[in-house]
Every structure is written in structure tokens, then in C-alpha cells.
Amino acid sequence: MKNQSSTKMQNSNVLLTGATGGMGKAFSQQLFDNGANLVLIGRDSHKLNDLKTELLTSNISATNKVEIFAADLVDSEQRQALIEYLATLTFDINLLINNAGINQFSLLEQTSGSEINRIISTNTIAPIQLTQALLPMLLKQDSAQIINIGSTFGSIGFPGYSAYCASKFALRGFSQTLSRELADTNVNVKYLSPRATKTNLISDKIKQLNTALNTTTDLPERVALELLKLIEQNKTERYIGWPEKLFVRINALFPSIVSKSIVKQLPIIQKFACEP
Ligand SMILES: NC(=O)c1ccc[n+]([C@@H]2O[C@H](COP(=O)([O-])OP(=O)(O)OC[C@H]3O[C@@H](n4cnc5c(N)ncnc54)[C@H](OP(=O)(O)O)[C@@H]3O)[C@@H](O)[C@H]2O)c1
Hints:
The protein has helices at 22-33, 45-58, 76-86, 113-140, 162-181, 204-212, 220-232, 244-253, 255-264, 266-274; strands spanning 13-16, 37-42, 66-70, 95-98, 144-149, 187-193, 237-239. By secondary structure, it is of the alpha/beta class. The radius of gyration is 19 Å and the shape is globular.
């Protein structure tokens, strides 16, 4: 149990999607410990209840609020119900973190149309539409932020993840565009790009692939510290991990160099993708 909580985010009222996942739990704890009021979103109300209890018992003297709301964000009616619920709270949201996301490791020819649809709807369309719905509230605040959780695969196309990469490239494009579109307002739009991180998003197959490719995997608590730095920083992007950060830059300038190195790994990727 923690004795003291920091109050550096006591004026932050955060809407966090994907709160019940690996990253989401670490983000919730870090934001709660720093004094933010939280509205936590996931699809499963039991998991949300457990998370709320966990946070509140981690510091029983904390005065910040933890609210929960279960919604499938792909569903427009459930998104609308969330917006209506937010209007009943005693505080306005001034920090939206679009974190909910899903992944799928398979070659495109093995991926069904409905899986492609699900990935793009969850990772790209839902956060764009939630952001749009929340924008009037964010624009009314003295100062507000929108943080989109992307991925290294939002900057580097990697075989076996075509739909996921497409969804995260699009989310990065959305972030950059909205950041410029809102440059003369009080709303800052930011993009956090984690590399592989130990959560349930990493299936056993992906774990084995990452081991075979010597991919470093971070703990979600590390990503939560990076999130905090991005919230405090006057920057619009933060990329986590070395050498991933460097590859992102080289890929933007000289994609053929990165292609050569990734294509060398193609037989290993194909082997894992084709295993049952
Ligand atoms: N783990 C990694 O290696 C990694 C690396 C880079 C970026 N990321 C990104 O980090 C973010 C968080 O991922 P994670 O690793 O924490 O994954 P995770 O443990 O699988 O958690 C995913 C979260 O998203 C929620 N979610 C999924 N679909 C939803 C929907 N339709 N409506 C509402 N909520 C939904 C889940 O809710 P339920 O619990 O109700 O299912 C869960 O809370 C994602 O955007 C992911 O792309 C992850």
C-alpha cells in the first residue's frame, strides 16, 4: 500500500479507454497515484469494478475520483451513451487517452475480412469518432490534451501485421493532422509509440516470434512512466525504445534500408505465422 500520492495531476480529469488491459492498468495506477480523477473504460464491467477496487485500496486516503463505464467503443450507440454519461459527472474531461486496441498476427492471405474490419474499427475509427464526440467538451477547458496510443508498427510496416500496421499508421496520421488543426486552440494532441510490451495483446505465438527475432519487450509500467513524461512535455510525439526509435527515423528517410533488414527475417515470420 502506498502512503502518499503525488498531486501533480490533481487538475487532470482523464478519460482512459482500454483501462482493463495490460497498458491500461499500469496507466490507471500511475495517473491515480499522481492525483488525477479517472473515468475508466473497457468492455467488461467486472474487470472495471476490480480495477476500481484495486486503485482505491492502493491508497485509501486518496481523494481523487475513479469512475467506470463499460462500452464497446466500436458501437456508435455505446459511444453516445458514454458521452451522455460524462455529462452527468461532477467534472469535465480534460485529458482523453485513446488506448483501447487489438492486434492480430497473421499473413494477409490468412486474415479474414471480419478480422481486418475489427482491427481497423477498434484501432482507428473508434478513437477518431470518440475524439470527435468529446471535442466540444475538451475545447471548453482552459487546457486539454488528447493522447493517442500508437505503436512502433504505426511507423514501420512489419510482415504479419498488415491490418494492425495500417490501423496504427492511420492513427498516427490522425494525431499529426489533428494536432495541426487544433494548433490555435487550448487542446494539445499527442502520440505515444510503445514497442512490444508484456500484456495479453502479445499472444503465445507473438511471444515465440519475438524471442526468435530477439525483440525486446517492455513492462507496461515503463510505458506508463513514458506516458507521464509525454503528458508533461511540450512535444507532440514520444517513441519508446532503442533501436526502435532509430529504425522509425531511418524508415521515414530510407525505407529500403529497413526493408532489407526486415525481409531477411521474413522466413522466420512466415514460419511462425503458418504454425497452428
Ligand atoms: N502490448 C504491446 O506489445 C503493444 C505495443 C505497442 C502498442 N500497443 C498498444 O497499446 C494499447 C493497449 O494495448 P495492451 O497491450 O494493453 O492490450 P490488452 O492488454 O489486450 O488491452 C486492450 C484493452 O482494450 C480494450 N478494448 C479492446 N477492444 C475494445 C472495444 N471494442 N471497446 C472498448 N474497449 C476495447 C480491452 O477491453 P476488454 O478488457 O473489455 O477486452 C482492454 O482494456 C493498444 O492500442 C495497443 O495497440 C501495445
